[in-house]
Write a structure and sequence with these properties.
12% strand; alpha+beta; 2 strands
């Protein structure tokens, strides 16, 4: 059988596995966007994000998931000029 080593849940039924396989086949062309160090305090980065999102909106099947991780600011939080 199949064992879920993460949650310790009992094995999935054959019906559930068939349903998951069908969903996986339907989602074969699904795209994900993963980006890190997206410095939102940078005008260039914000412009690039605007272009990325504009392009995604025009896609027949836009990405199903966006993951942004890491630092979102080029400078440490609380750092200021002066």
């Amino acid at each position: 059988g199949n064992m879920d080593f993460v949650s310790g849940s009992p094995a999935l039924s054959a019906e559930a596995l068939d349903e998951l396989l069908a969903h996986e086949k339907r989602s074969a062309n699904t795209a994900f966007v993963i980006a890190s160090e997206v410095h939102l305090d940078s005008p260039e980065v914000r412009s690039s994000l605007r272009s990325l999102f504009s392009g995604c909106v025009q896609m027949p099947e836009p990405p199903a998931l966006f993951v942004f991780m890491g630092e979102f600011s080029a400078r440490p939080f609380g750092e200021f000029e002066g």
